[in-house]
Amino acid sequence: MARPARITRDDVAHAALRALDDVGYDQLSMRTLAKELGVGTMTLYHHVADKDDLVDAAIDLVFAGLPAAMPDAGVTGRARVIAVATTVLDLLLEHPGLIQARGQRALRRPTTLAVTNDLARGLLEAGVDPATAGVGIPLLLDYAIGCAGFTTQIEDEETFEALRQALPADEFGPLLAVNQAVIDTYGPPYTRRRAFEINVERILDGLGAR
Amino acid sequence: MARPARITRDDVAHAALRALDDVGYDQLSMRTLAKELGVGTMTLYHHVADKDDLVDAAIDLVFAGLPAAMPDAGVTGRARVIAVATTVLDLLLEHPGLIQARGQRALRRPTTLAVTNDLARGLLEAGVDPATAGVGIPLLLDYAIGCAGFTTQIEDEETFEALRQALPADEFGPLLAVNQAVIDTYGPPYTRRRAFEINVERILDGLGAR
DNA sequence: ACCTGAACACCGTTCAAGT
DNA sequence: ACCTGAACACCGTTCAAGT
């Protein structure tokens, strides 16, 4: 039996994901990663082509666990769409470094086609017109990415208070009014995940899902 | 009259925006930018605090022109929301480097509060419940960002054909069906901007906008 | 065959000095 | 007062050599 290689691509991918989670993409360096794995910097290049490929390996690691989390045949189409969308959001919220590193490619790996297909299945089962479903799938995914990485959501009352005091009421009346209504109706705690859930329901209504 | 400074913050911001558009954030360097402006690298630091501030200046430049593009009082609330959302999308599509560089901060500048306020105004005018409007505003903005920077949209028939041939029909039936319906119904040309317009209408339906 | 140190061509930013 | 070159502490990746 040959001596196993000291490190595998999987080891590298796991270390990269941990570094992305801990310090973010900007601070992720081949040198530091190699040091952490106890190998020379150049050894990494035997397992990944370059830094891009390193991040792709980390992405695949995250989405590899996704099919198992998918709802089984027993649920309604609407429940399936909600489950898939929020699972994607949760994965992205857990690993914000992925979006920082990859942008669009984070959801363009072969691994994520199963997700897209599950959304299509759920929407069709919920009675959504096929063309409307096809247009609506990117809406759900783009919103999940935008919400995870970029939301302008106000999540706590202090931020809202600060905003209220900073904005002249005569000019920003509508904004202050809707923010007040959100605080009164939904929170605290009012998280971006909660907002996502509420909005997915509205999106499904708009798409005509039963 | 004192000799005017050779370069202003505005010059630096314009040059930074051009560089972001041309070569992207990764290739944007203080050294190159300074050379292009015909000054020493360190001179830039008299106009911007650091590279982050440089990008913020470029962002403000882009959104500075936005209030002028806002619809006036004559339109319906629904039309206002559509106009504001698509204008934001167009700005982001024109300058993809902004999202690459900033992520969430791209829409968190004081300049963009006017946008948020206009969306609130439009939604309220369209009869949307205030709390629903407050939750729905980040949906519109997050979707615009996700769509501009990260969409998984299939925009041309070749990509669709490639996908169809790559995916086994028995496993990816729903995905292939909805994609076919989109091609048949909307395109070509079916762009991400077109998809955005369609989906904003559906979002407004879901939010209960008249 | 497998691994990797040294080197190349870059970065952003600090500091101290030049005019 | 205003500007900036040199230097510091980093990068990702190529190349050639080491074991």
UniProtKB/TrEMBL annotation, chains A, B:
Positions of the HTH tetR-type domain: 6-66
Protein keywords: DNA-binding, Transcription, Transcription regulation
One Pfam family per UniProt: TetR_N
DNA-binding region: 29-48
InterPro entries linked: Homeodomain-like_sf, HTH-type_TetR-like_transc_reg, HTH_TetR, Tet_transcr_reg_TetR-rel_C_sf
Cited PANTHER family: HTH-TYPE TRANSCRIPTIONAL REGULATOR BETI, HTH-TYPE TRANSCRIPTIONAL REGULATOR RUTR
Entry protein name: TetR family transcriptional regulator
UniProt lineage: Bacteria, Bacillati, Actinomycetota, Thermoleophilia, Solirubrobacterales
